[in-house]
Fold each of these.
Amino acid sequence: MSVVTEEAVRTAAHQIWLDEGCPDGRAETHWHQAREMMEKAAAPKRKATAPKKKAAAAGEAAVAKATRAPARPRKTAS
């Protein structure tokens, strides 16, 4: 887990201030915006779960069984 430092937030807030044309009186807004952005970037990403192998194999077996040709009758010994 990554920690958001005050220096990183300060740098991001300064960049936001520059990008907006250096407006007066928006320091607190820029600070909160930068902190939210940094926390979101530092949050752990959730991995997408892969389908379970058993379920996938069972599904493939059902498809194969449904699509195979009918069995031929066996010859009997006479």
Amino acid sequence: MKNTEFLNLMGDIDIELIEKAEHPKRKRYAGKIWVSAIAACLAVAVAFGAVLGGTPVGISEKDGYAIVRAVYGEDVDEAPFYDYYYDGIDEFYKNMLVEMFEKNGGENAVYSPASLYMSLAMLAEMTDGESRAQILALLGADDIKETRAIAQRIWNACYRAENENKMLIANSVWLNERFDEYLKPQTLGTVAEYHYTSSFSGNFEDEAYTEAIKSWINEQTENLLEDSVGNLDFDPETVFSLISTVYFKDIWENKFSEGETKPMTFYTSANEAVKCDYLCQEAIYLIYEGENFTAILKEFESGGDMLFVLPERGHTPEELLHDEEFLEFFVYPYEKNFASENIAVRIPKFDISSEKDMVETMRNLGVTHIFNADASNFTPLAKDLDIFLNRFDHSVRVSIDENGCVGAGYTAIDGVCGVDPRLMKFDRPFLFSVFTEEGTPLFAGLINNPAKN
């Protein structure tokens, strides 16, 4: 089915959603609370985790695969961004922190709650019944309307498109054109409207199509994850691939001096001494002393902060994550009273990345049906197809240096058919016959060469 024909099936979808998914007016700068919450996670990335923003770059006209486009506007109304972060995503964030960092075997770990939330919110739109109920329960939402509202808040709060300081999110769904007749276009309109998601259709057996997917991810993430993206492969029988990307870049308000950077010793979780380049600075910082940890805030040029958390000697980051009081602080740092103090800071530079298969993590958190062909329910997306997920990958990279912080990530979720529609390709000699309604044979034939008249 051609893309134009597919668009004609979109029926009662608002015509303005075809070719573009317009956003409500929004602010170009996301606001301190959400930016700071993002920085709080980035701050402990050497020991564990990160949360990022992503980038919606314009869809290229040359690929020819787009059927619904997300187009991002410029203006936005002022809004209470405090509520954007604290209303809805907090419990999801806390639950994910423990699950993502508990079994890392002493390795670095980093992830993006923003990307995971957006991906799961889109997945909820494509599912129904217990499949949707399990996703909503993990997201801490009562219904699909709530996840739509929160997803819009996250997207708008993470939209900052300046060249030097970026924080942006992009979403897309890549469909298999073989299954166009089974798909329900209304759902594509819904994810475009509420999740700013562009949809594409092509053949997963066509290398040009899968390369277009990889190019799209690299474009959104400023090529920070090229190695990870290059390793992506796609099952030819994939029905859809849902991709959510995040990109974050910000400059310190008070940069570290490169001349002050010095090699020093870092002691790993295995108490191994390793040499690292340390960012060194003596300046006024906001500091908070909790039970078994000390935290400082370092401000970004955009107005956000990065929260660095140092456990007291004899305690580990993993131990802190099992302390409810610490989790409350880590998720809601601005509800605490920070003191202002002159501090000599020594922080190791880092550039870390993480690739994680999220299937087991999702199952541990109660999301199981979508991975089972007999239990999954993807009826909002497609009719007469027993779809289940065979991929749920999450890849993130974060670095800090004298100038600031850069991070990017993507979540890739693939759905395949439990029972693939049988393909009958008449590419060799075959027979045919034509019958009347009463069964009278009008014609019978044998085709040895359909190209010959």
Amino acid sequence: MAQNAAITGPSTWTVEGTRLKLNGEDICLNGVCYSPTPKGFGIFSPQIGDWFYDKLGAMWSSDNSNDRGDLRTMRELGVNHLRTYFWWVWQWPTPEQENSIDWVKRRGWRDAGAATFDHTRFLDECQANGIHVMIGLAVNSGDIFESDPSLRPAYRELYVDTAREIGRRYGAHPAVMGLCVGNEQNQPGRNENPDFWAGLSEMSQAFRATATNKITMIAFQNDANLFKTKVNGAPLQEIYKRDYDAYGLNIYGDLNSSLNEYRSQVVEAEGGKWALPLIVSEWGVGGGKNVENPKYNDPAFNFPKTRQVMTNSGPEDVPIGPLEGPPFGIALAREFNDAEFRTACDNLRKYYGQIRDNSSFVAGSEYFAWSDEWWKNNTDQKLIEAIDNGSLRLDQWGRFASPWPMPPDFNGLVEHKIPTRITEQDAGASPDWPEEFWGLYALENNPNGPIGWTEYGYMYNADALRARPTVEALKEVFSQG
């Protein structure tokens, strides 16, 4: 299989109907979702999920002999595209420097000399390996549209300013394809909110104004009612086409019904006037499964099999199944065995075939995910610290009472939860979804020692990656075009 050629010269991205074009030519995106959070690390300041600035090349660069070289490996697999979930311009303050909410409220990112990240090295490496980057704007709609009303304008300005500055700094870089304005922010209650769409539009337009030859999109949760949404009486498709260039849709399992829905509700609806290309912004098959904990049915342990939830008619007992992981269940997780991986790889081939069979409007895809993310189901670190220092007690089943700390006037439903740590790879809350095992690559210890940082803040000894059988299956399908 021929490897990607390095990207040379400027890159101009346009859309014609349902066709995505690079410098006037059709392109098929064989992409991955790239969020290489090391094991034992979480989403913390100052990078808050941004693993792409210049000092983190130990994971993705090939400059030094000890670098892991993720981008070069992608090139060898036929990957020509990636999407990130985070990408910050300004560094958030550490707790020792300033409370982050105070920083947002006073617009601390606008301070003269405010600390910033430099992502040029990452983009240069992508360019050398022929990888086009969809930069992810880490939109937190809870902060922007649902937090303390006095904070909402500041959060909105932070994201708009970030989108604008990303475009100004990187919009002319040949490896940059565009900006993804959030991931799975479409939720019941928001979808019909005009202010929600106006805020996201403002971010899209801010980027477009400073990156005139690039595109914008949103990566949507696969909501069956999404394309039936009306905003101030107008169809969502009409509003969306005004502000964005392509759709992203995260689809798991068989894709055909979702792709057919997109075809009828977007591509063909209203005589095609709302048509835009689709990028399948997440799809995949995973690499592990939840398994029953022997303690679940051990009479001596006597684990509670139900928990209470609040309904409109009051508290109601719901079951805790044997394959439910934390925070409420005690299931364990393991990597697939050989037979399970064969099934997973067969499904991967089938799903990619469905993407390819709809290439008249599907411009490509982003496989989820490059590597395992151990932080996905972790408990807040402050809670873990309280457990470790004895100020938060666990019951006989290893559960803590939530909320914690308990407000003195709290009269709601107390939940009992199983804590999990970012230093461990846990089962998922869903019996079918151990998200910490969802990578093409498993994380393993670097034989040279644990991750470290030089006195200048450069990472060394990045986690080692172990390829799962899904790697070869993805390479096989990507070679088909």
Amino acid sequence: MKSSEKFNFEASIKELENIVKALENPDTGLDNSIELYKRGIDLLNKCSKKLEEAELEITKITKKE
């Protein structure tokens, strides 16, 4: 993902689901599996960061009330 593109959590989760399906497929070659795994780890890290940011925002909102 380019830095100019906005991160889309839902689209990233869907892509992760597709990566998992591809990795579970015995017809997926080793080289492709490695690339998919790298992409999956990248998406996982970005999704985790987004969830942490959301949790912090919700905590701030609830403390204001």
